[in-house]
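Let us practice reading a record.
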Amino acid sequence: MKRLFCIIMLMLPTPVWASVDAGLLNEMFTMVNESYLQPVDNAAMVTAGLQAITELDGDIVISKGSDKFYLYYKKQIKKIIPQPELAGDISGWSKTAARIADEAVRLSEKVALRDFELPDLMMKKITAKLDPFSHYYSEYDYSEDKEENAIYTLYSDRKIDDVLYLRVRIFNKQTSGAVRGSLERNKPYSAVILDLRGNSGGILNEALKVADLFTDNEIITYTSGRDGNNVHYYTSNENAFYGGPLVVLVDGETASAAEVLAAGLQDQSRAKVVGTLTFGKGTIQDVIQMSNGGKLVLTTEQFFTPSGRAIHQKGVQPDVCEAKDINGLCKKESRLWEEHDIETAIKLLKNEL
């Protein structure tokens, strides 16, 4: 009977787990180390990635010591894994992360059930710790051009007496053409209000085309990468279609390409800016194709105004602030439907302020 039991046990299938691909992690770590806007800490990236494992099974705890990782399962230490000696050893940190993940797969059935997607889960955790705009998308959950598909009705125009009012809520493929059409169709007018309140950005090239309509061969913005490298200037490339008085409205939700446009027109003394402090999203993200079919959206550069002011995390200070805090500083708040801001712009255009 004992012999029969042994034979049956030998015939039972041995669990097979997919090893976590250290090469894929190394690919990502290399991209982040080489291209991310700020220097990164590889140990911190590994620690962030390992959170994906502990979230799959609460019985697993991964603790980072000074030179080792400690893997606990059900309150018992199961593995001690040394860290690479060098902080910049990308390959070593990638292998360490993969080894810890493999050990967790062997210990936990909950983790083992997700072994095939562990690298994706780990890379999502890592990018989430970098900044709010960097992301990792697996082959199955990435969607491109969502901003480009914004509906056309996010643009409108109207005349307020002899002032042309243009509201631009996002920069999509139709925006610059719509603005030009308004400028052509509504003649004559004595001044223009460009309302960018609530504008979260969109296609940078469309914002630059709008700048073309109001400026003559001026620098609108420039970008640079880590340590001031890879400087790229963006300049309006045609004569202004309209060169008269101009006011730009902004608020705390004016972001990205909209901030770039507002700051560029302000810096070149082409427009007065009215409203509140803008959002402060002044970075560029590159989409990097990975070998596993996933895509890494990584912050690689940041915008500066023509005079060298950074936009990211600072925003654009309006010339006329519509809301201040108790210290007298311009606040960051949503003012999308505040008619008072439009009234202020008209007074400014008529030299009544």
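A brief commentary: Residues 49 and 123 are 6 Å apart (CA to CA).
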